[in-house]
Amino acid sequence: MNWINLARAWLTRTKKPFIFLSEYDQKLDYLSLDNLGLYIHIPFCAKICSFCPYCKTVYQKELADNYINALIKEIHLVSKQVGSKKQVTSLYFGGGTPCLCIDSIKKIIDAIKQYFIITDGIGIELHPQDLTEDVLKQLKQAQITKISIGIQSFDEKCLSFLGRKNELDILKLNNLLMKYPFETVSMDLIFGIPGQTFESLKKDFEIAFECHANHVAIYPLIEFSFYKPEQKTTLRQKRKLINKILDYCQQKGYKRTSIWTFSKDNGHYSSMTRQNFLGFGCSATTLLRNQFKINTFDVQEYINRINNNCLPTALTCRLTKRQRMIYYLFWTAYSTVINPQDFENYFGESLHKNYGFEFFLARVLGFLRKKNNIYYLTKRGTYYYYYFERFYTLSYIDKMWNILRKQSFPQKIEL
Ligand SMILES: C[S@@+](CC[C@H](N)C(=O)[O-])C[C@H]1O[C@@H](n2cnc3c(N)ncnc32)[C@H](O)[C@@H]1O
Ligand code: SF4
Q1: What separation in Å is there between the alpha carbon of 49 and the centre of ligand 2?
Q2: Where are the domains of the chain?
């Protein structure tokens, strides 16, 4: 057992791993939960990028049409049985490249609106190739309020390392975004690409904010086990870059809104930091009070299950209270702010009673500071969060997704 597994056993107060089984609930009990978010996965791309871990396949019209019909049916299957309309914070479309199915986006939102009242807007991920007048017009008509564009980098060499070309005409993009304004325009950047310098990264940031972005997500390049690039950036080099990025953003007055996101002028795009969420579509996850479930990654099997009126859940993990608390704290820490009162409201128990020693230790080690009874991650804390997140991604998510890419409905996975 390595030290991170030991830490997990300590924090969850059990040696029991996270156990995912093929059994699942046909009825999902979400009505009583506050702060519920919705996520919809569209697993089609025009071309597959070698570094990308997400569930996706090359777009084929007939398969995509059948998928959209099944997706709408899944929304009805999950929500019809609940009986009354539920208020949710947000709806996010991710992928894949959701706008390859642009003609169906409004139809999907209409199905969602039969059962849910969305209070904080609707977001969608775009590939740079989606930035056309026709697509943006249809997104506005569908009442999408936030867009997130997968830029990755504006630098030719970095893009070429990622197997992409710079297809963006910045002037055209600026004009389009003036004509079709969105509340949030977010851009995804990647750092830690071999050969990338801080100067080029700084330039990426500047161009993004000049191009009407009011929110920028800057992710470290994660080298999943299936991705074998010829060169890799070391953890040490990434740490240096993280620290420089933080200093630069602070100087420029960009507000840090989570571990990897910065905003100005109230830009907000976050499909991850929600306490409870319902996911629809292939590979989508659902987190309710004490259950975490994940849908099959297999597009055809997803359609088959739905056509048999069954939910397409591949695996369910029934979380113990301590496991749920750790999951809660992990994602709350992602926002860099932990409010003990929110924890108590959610669990009906005090944070200090459950994790007082750990929070004391984290302050002594300089990972957290406390102000007005609220905890904030420090620069040091941010780095160690990244270290932990990287471990979690490479040993939990990577392992689970590798299995789910090969088996549509595995019997059991232990993590
Ligand atoms: C589903 S993609 C975004 C939408 C669109 N398909 C695109 O590629 O432009 C979500 C984001 O995940 C990030 N991403 C994908 N693979 C990654 C990796 N291996 N490491 C870090 N970030 C990654 C990219 O920044 C990407 O924009
Ligand atoms: S990065 Fe985007 S376009 Fe590339 S394979 Fe992943 S989802 Fe598709």
Answers
A1: 5
A2: 1-18+321-415, 20-263
pLDDT of 298 reads: 98
Three-state DSSP at 37 gives: strand
Q: What is the pLDDT of residue 114?
A: 96
> Is residue 95 lining ligand 1, measured as CB closer than 6 Å?
yes
> Which structure tokens are listed for 134?
């026709």
Tokens of 65: 């049409």
State the ligand closest to the CA atom of 220: 1
Ligand positioned closest to the Cα atom of 98: 1
Q: What is the rounded average pLDDT of the residues 79-86? A: 88
> Which residue is associated with the tokens 């999907």?
108
Domain 1-18+321-415 is found in CATH 1.10.10: yes
CATH ID of 20-263, from 3.10.180.10, 3.80.30.20, 3.20.20.140, 3.30.70.660:
3.80.30.20
Residue closest by Cα to atom 4 of ligand 2: 49
Phi, psi dihedral angles at 338 (to 5 degrees): -125, 120
Mutate to test the pocket of ligand 1, among 51, 190, 224 (most ligand atoms within 8 A of CB): 190
Q: Give the pTM.
A: 0.94
